[in-house]
Specification:
73 residues, mainly alpha, 2 helices, 78% helix
């Protein structure tokens, strides 16, 4: 996430969109693999779910930061 106070609302929203698109890609991959998962693949699946959580959190934070800056103007 971009902590720079000079970052524009457009940049923050673009970052949010990118994080959420990455998260969607991981979710799509997990859905595709769900039918193929074996016991030994569970660790990788859990790591991927953790990645989705982080990407969604980053996207949400960027969107909230952009919204806050937009309201200040």
């Amino acid at each position: 996430m971009n902590e720079d106070t000079d970052t524009t609302v457009d940049t923050l929203l673009n970052e949010a969109g990118e994080y959420l698109q990455y998260a969607q890609g991981v979710v799509d991959l997990l859905i595709e693999r769900t039918t193929e998962i074996e016991l030994c693949d569970r660790r990788q699946t859990l790591l991927a779910l953790g990645a989705v959580s982080v990407l969604v959190k980053l996207g949400s934070q960027s969107a909230m930061q952009a919204h806050s800056r937009w309201q200040m103007h």
